[in-house]
Amino acid sequence: MSRLDGITPNRSDLVHAGGAGNERSATTGLRSDDQDLLNSSPPSTTQKKIALAMVVVMTIVVVAATPAARYVLSGTEALLPGYAAARLLVELMTAALLIAHFAAHPSPAILTLANGYLFSALLVVPWALTFPGVLEAFGLGPTDQSTAYVAAIRRIGFPLFILAYLARRSAPQLPSGTAASRILTSVLATAAAAAALSWGVIINDDQLPPLMLNERRIAAAWNIVPSVSIVLYVIALSLLWRRRTCSLDLWLAIVLGTLLAEIVLLSYISGGIRLSVGWWTGRAFGLLSASIVLVALLVESMSLYSRLARSVAAERRVRESRLSAMEAMSATVAHEVTQPVASMVTNANAALRWLDKPRPEIGEAEGALRRIVDDGHRAGEVISNIRTLFRKDARDRGPLDIRQLIEDVLSRSRREAEAARVLLRADVAPCDVVVIGNPVQLSQAISNLVANAIDATRSVAEREVVVRCDTIVPEGLTVSVEDTGPGIASDLRKRIFEPFFTTRPDGMGMGLMFSRAVVESHGGRLWVDDVVPRGAAFRFTLPVLGGIESEGRATRNG
Amino acid sequence: MAEPEAVVYVIDDDASMRASIESLLRSVGHTVVTFDSTQSFLEFSRPEGPACVVLDVRMPGASGLELQRELAAAGSAIPIIFVTGHGDIAMSVAAMKAGALEFLTKPFRDQDLLDAVHRGLEEDRRRSRRDLHLDALRERYALLTSRERQVMRMAAAGLLNKQIAAELALSEVTVKVHRANAMQKMQARSLPDLVRMSDSLGAHIQES
Fold first, then answer.
1. Which is nearest to A557 in space by CA: A433, A465, A375?
2. Where are the domains of chain B?
3. Which of B102, B98, B83, B104 is nearest to B10 (CA)?
4. In terms of CATH, what superfamily is B7-130?
5. Which residues, renumbered to this chain, carry the PTM 4-aspartylphosphate (chain B) (predicted)?
6. pLDDT above 90: residue B25
7. pTM confidence score
């Protein structure tokens, strides 16, 4: 008797929902809160493997590009607007997704990171516009230095934003109401800063210390930029590495890695020569680094979306099955109440007709009226029983003698058994354990099982139903209703506890569900076993007052 | 025509429901016999005469629908009025398809039940009259010689004496004699009467 045969956990949720009002199943299929978000879940093994593979590939590319790094690909200026547009779009989209993320979970760190991407994206515009040879037709004047200055600001600005992101990681999550205004303020501030810096650089182009010797070659002063940014990248990288608590940190570390590769390629391997192979490889790394977080965010939102769809579907299923349990219960109520009410109506009609005769038959009318009184009491009893079943605080539970209860049920079922020519007997071990329960509920539950068992023997010649009761350590008390019928086919085992499932052509399929709800609301469980050589046994346990083990006398032979 | 008394059989496992239906039916003068299971009804040897059954669909032991099937299988055409506590459409369709006279949902109007019982008894009465009539015809038909049966079948099919004579290689006078004998034995007053009897006997004639 170790395991519950044919009882699945979700079915037990269902019965709880119908019987004792257990709300646990409401969250089935939904994982708690935001533990799966990019900035709160630790990186998975797969993610770590992908990151490692990216590092390896980048190293190979850098090494491969080194020999031809300084070879200038003339005329490739034409590709620059396309490159700039791609970078602008990717970084803007990343910023937008991060802002959306912030709107849902207002963490200041995420907003900082979003603004970093926004700042970087916005500076792509002046960078591309001032790039020598790109838009000369606009006659923007001498902007030889502006491009380099804008690039320098972008280059140094982005790791600063990442450092700010890391610094604000521990900041508490903001109340969600303030998110919109914070987004607006920070976006405006970032845009204003980007615009002001670009403007300042462009109008002061000729007064700034030169970073470029000519259109393609860098000046000595430029050397500060890569060294400062490399220092910043390394600091940010080491901080990220030390505190890599979430997958976003892992991806940011890769972003910084590619940026590092980019600056090394741009400034050292290519010797600072623009439009060279090394320079273009660096640019490719730049685009890659801009895309990494975007891709990670898109993957995250797609997987979140599909998970949401799944959990919504799961929740709907739970709701539907709970609904059908409710329907089953209301059908039980309707049936139990209809019977006496119908009888009352017919008796009343009969009484009226007896009295309406030319010679009223008082005796007959009186008989009908007496039956109405009985039916009224019966209906009231049914209603109060049903109310007992539905009440959460089963107030009228008390210590009860399970043996007496079984005897009562059997004496009530006797007539039914005789009609079906079934030998109905009890095999109740003498035990003096005390069960706390509601006698009406429990006898109804046993009576349902007995009725099912009698019904099951209909197709066989040897018809016998035995109700057993014994105490078993540590389950408590076990009541079994065994029949000599054909037994329950294994594929039906799970389904028999469902509402409206029945093997009878005219059955309602509610008895078992009702019994199980009662047993489980008493802290027991109900399952079905095979009987050797044939037949089925429906067994349920009930906890015993004080427990079996502490109650020394309540043993099998007690 | 002096007929045996009509009986209404009420089968319901609910004692109070059974008593109430019985009382209602008796109050309008029906003779009622009640049963608490379909089994006890099947074991009861029913007397001759018109009858109908008021049957609860859902009962322990054999259900109402099963009883309907069993009665049909046994060749009994007794009209059945179903009453049910829950108006299950699928179940009522099954019952009506299998030839139930009426399907009433509890609580029902008394007049509905009384009307249904009245119709049921009326139908059964008609059927039993038909049966009695047919039995009488068969008895009479059994008295006919095989030649007379041949002549009767052909005459009923609309053949003239001359045609029958040619068909059976008899003289027309002999055919006339056989035909007169058949009419007399069947107690037919006219040729159309004989044709109707022939129709009623139907398959019975074909067999012989």
1. A433
2. 7-130, 142-207
3. B83
4. Response regulator (3.40.50.2300)
5. 56
6. yes
7. 0.48
Instruction: List b or e across A436-456, with b for residues whose CB sees 16 or more CB atoms inside 10 angstroms.
Output: bbbbbbbbbbbbbbbbbbbbb
CATH number of B142-207: 1.10.10.10
Place of tokens 């009465």: B125
Task: For chain A, give the percent of residues with pLDDT over 90.
Answer: 17
Q: What is the pLDDT of residues A349-386, one digit of tens each?
A: 999 999 999 999 999 999 999 999 988 887 887 776 66
Predicted ipTM beyond 0.85: no
Residue of B nearest to A373 (CA): B16
From CA B2, how far away is CA B11, in angstroms rounded? Answer: 28
As a whole number of angstroms, the distance between CA B128 and CA B114 comes to 21
Q: Are B98 and B68 in contact (CB under 8 A)?
A: yes
Q: Residue A162 corresponds to which tokens in the numbers above?
A: 């990442």
Strand, helix or coil for residue B106 = coil
**Between residues B21 and A20, the one the model is more confident about:** B21
Q: Are B147 and B178 in contact (CB under 8 A)?
A: yes
CA dihedral A350, A352, A356, A357 (to 10 degrees): 20
Contact B26 A342 (CB under 8 A): no
> What pLDDT digit, counting tens, does each position of A285-306 carry?
888 888 988 998 898 888 888 8
Helix (H) or strand (E) holding A437: strand A435-437
CA distance A370 to chain B (A): 10
Backbone φ and ψ of B57, nearest 5°: -65, -45
Calculate how close chain A gets to B110, using CA atoms only, in Å: 6
Residue A190 CA to residue A98 CA, distance in Å, equals 15
For chain B, give the longest Cα–Cα distance: 74
From the list A367, A374, A451, the residue facing B23 with the nearest CB is: A367
Give which of A349, A364, A366, A413 to mutate to test B binding, by max B Cβ within 10 Å.
A349
- In this complex, the residue of B20, B37, B63 whose CB is nearest that of residue A371 is B20
Instruction: Classify residue B119 as exposed, middle or buried by CB count within 10 Å of its CB (0-12, 13-18, 19+).
Output: middle
* Interchain CB distance below 8 Å, A345 and B107: yes
Per-residue H/E/C for A85-150? HHHHHHHHHHHHHHHHHHHHCCCHHHHHHHHHHHHHHHHHHHHHHHCCCCCHHHCCCCCHHHHHHH
φ and ψ at residue A542, rounded to 5 degrees: -135, 135
B130 in reach of chain A (CB within 8 A): no
H helix or E strand, kind and range, residue A479: strand A476-483
Tell me what pLDDT residue A429 has: 76
